[in-house]
């Protein structure tokens, strides 16, 4: 019987996320009501790690006192260190296998009804789904299971980490100004994805992603979710990104709402 490791987590200084912090990318994030509503933090651990340890590692992470003192979560309109030790952690493994943006080529083909030949996103009659205004076929592809465009991406494709990022950006925040063309969404998706995952070259020169992605819901002693707060809202999402090579952990937390400030 294998003895479970006791992990020691050490906070790291905020990394310079070159792609996300690009001025043009920041302008789009502001326009879509995303800027200020997500937080990225970095930690490391030194203990031995195998991929099958991922669930134990994630649970230990949220129940660790050092992490609790450093982890920023939403408190009102602020990002704050609330020093919460998780009582329970729901963990869902997320596929992270997409190596290039050809994953989104289906959206760029006018035959599929998302964009016109000009690149402009196809408009449609307004309807509301899960409190989101659906006025074009791109957002319908994300939310309207009854429309033909929804079937462009299969269930396993929708569960890719890059698809979660894309959906978060397209649906945006409360003060979202939507785009009329597709390309900005793809550009910012690529920027965020590149900053969040790590690609390694294998011996046979093939590329692979070394990042393990877990979607998590951490709950406090009262059984209330705080990472993310109100996970019933599809834009409230929290991920733990584990680099199995460098033993680094990156947290990514997005909370739908008004602009959040650091406290």
Explain what this protein looks like in three dimensions.
The chain has 263 residues and is α+β, with helices and mostly antiparallel strands. Helix content is 24%, strand content 27%. It has 2 domains: 9-92 and 209-254, no CATH class; 101-196, no CATH class. Strand 12 (237-243) and strand 13 (248-254) form a beta hairpin.
Poorly predicted runs = none
> Over all CA atoms, what is the radius of gyration?
19 Å
Query: Structural class, from secondary structure content?
Result: alpha+beta
Count of spatially separate domains: 2
Q: How can the largest sheet be summarized?
A: 7 strands, antiparallel
Q: In percent terms, what proportion of residues is strand? A: 25-35%
Helix content: 10-25%
Query: What is the count of DSSP helices, taking H or I runs of 4+ residues?
Result: 8
Q: What's the N-to-C terminus distance?
A: 45 Å
Written as H for each helix and E for each strand, in order along the chain, the element string is EHEHHEEEHEEHHHHEEEEEEE
Number of extended strands = 14
Provide the residue-averaged pLDDT.
Answer: 92
Using the alpha-carbon principal axes, give the shape: globular
Keywords: Cell projection, Cilium, Cytoplasm, Cytoskeleton, Flagellum
Protein name: Cilia- and flagella-associated protein 300
Pfam families: CFAP300
Subcellular location: Cytoplasm, Cytoskeleton, Cilium axoneme
């Amino acid at each position: 019987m294998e003895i479970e490791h006791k992990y020691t987590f050490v906070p790291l200084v905020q990394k310079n996320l070159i792609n996300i912090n690009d001025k043009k990318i920041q302008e789009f994030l502001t326009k879509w009501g995303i800027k200020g509503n997500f937080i990225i933090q970095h930690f490391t651990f030194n203990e031995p790690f195998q991929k099958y340890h991922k669930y134990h590692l994630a649970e230990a992470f949220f129940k660790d006192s050092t992490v609790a003192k450093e982890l920023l979560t939403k408190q009102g309109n602020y990002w704050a260190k609330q020093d919460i030790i998780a009582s329970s952690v729901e963990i869902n493994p997320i596929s992270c296998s997409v190596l290039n943006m050809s994953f989104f080529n289906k959206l760029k083909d006018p035959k599929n009804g998302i964009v016109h030949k000009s690149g402009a996103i196809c408009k449609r009659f307004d309807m509301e789904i899960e409190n989101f205004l659906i006025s074009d076929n791109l957002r319908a592809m994300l939310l309207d299971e009854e429309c033909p465009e929804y079937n462009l991406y299969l269930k396993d494709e929708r569960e890719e980490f890059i698809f979660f990022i894309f959906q978060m950006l397209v649906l945006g925040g409360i003060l979202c100004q939507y785009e009329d063309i597709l390309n900005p969404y793809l550009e910012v998706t690529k920027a965020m994805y590149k900053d969040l995952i790590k690609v390694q070259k294998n011996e046979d020169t093939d590329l692979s992603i070394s990042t393990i992605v877990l979607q998590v819901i951490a709950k406090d002693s009262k059984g209330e979710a705080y990472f993310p707060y109100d996970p019933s809202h599809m834009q409230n999402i929290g991920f733990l990104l584990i680099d199995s090579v460098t033993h680094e952990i990156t947290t990514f937390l997005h909370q739908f709402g008004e602009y959040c400030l650091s406290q």
